[in-house]
Amino acid sequence: MILPIIAYGDPVLRKVADEIDKDYPKLNDLISHMWETMYNASGVGLAAPQIGLPIRIFLVDTTPFSDDEDLTAEEQKQLDGFKQVFVNAYIEEETGEEWAFNEGCLSIPDVREDVNRKDTIKITYLDENFNTHSKTFDGLLARVIQHEYDHIEGILFTDKLSALKKRMLKGRLTNISKGKISVDYRMKFPAMKKGR
């Protein structure tokens, strides 16, 4: 089932998400719906807050990035077929040089900006079967994970921009929160809620 993606301005995107346990109701169905929703919107990652659930789940499939001709063969291989569910994830450390990359977000359509992030992360998480993993990722793969991880911490990529950039984007972000934007996937806007 394709779910609507929550737009910028909704308070759920600002909550630090809660951990879940393996008895979370219909977890496998939820994960399946999240994959379907992400692929329908041509995304490479999706976090539960983006579908209105303040829980610590996000998923990543970096395969679309593996076609990028600017990447080395090793980077393309790392990204091709990387598909993972992250439950109750915590980034233990971020190391290496900061580097800029042009990021976007399904909850903030038609806004793309360069964001600086550290190159390497160590992250502890559970997979969809609740097996524990502690892994190190780097490069573009680390960046996609960091972006989705931020969502379960109540952080958006626009928070990492300079004060000037934020001021320049203010009108566009306000329009998104009011539903004054055209997208080719289902979205739910804060202004559509009852009582507003």
Can you give keywords for this protein?
single chain, 196 residues, alpha+beta, Peptide Deformylase, five-stranded antiparallel sheet, 4 helices, globular
How many structurally independent domains?
A: 1
Sheet/helix structural class: alpha+beta
Strand segment count:
7
Q: What general outline do the C-alpha atoms trace?
A: globular
Number of helices: 4
Could you name the CATH topology? Peptide Deformylase
CATH superfamily: Peptide deformylase
Q: What is the ordering of alpha helices and beta strands?
A: EHEEHEEEHHE
Sequence of strands across the biggest β-sheet:
2-3-4-5-6
CATH architecture: Alpha-Beta Complex
Q: DSSP strand (E) fraction?
A: 25-35%
Q: Taking all residues together, what is the mean pLDDT? A: 94
Helix content: 25-40%
Largest sheet features: 5 strands, antiparallel
Per CATH, the class reads Alpha Beta
Family: Belongs to the polypeptide deformylase family.
Function: Removes the formyl group from the N-terminal Met of newly synthesized proteins. Requires at least a dipeptide for an efficient rate of reaction. N-terminal L-methionine is a prerequisite for activity but the enzyme has broad specificity at other positions.
InterPro entries: Peptide_deformylase, Peptide_deformylase_sf
GO molecular function, one term: metal ion binding
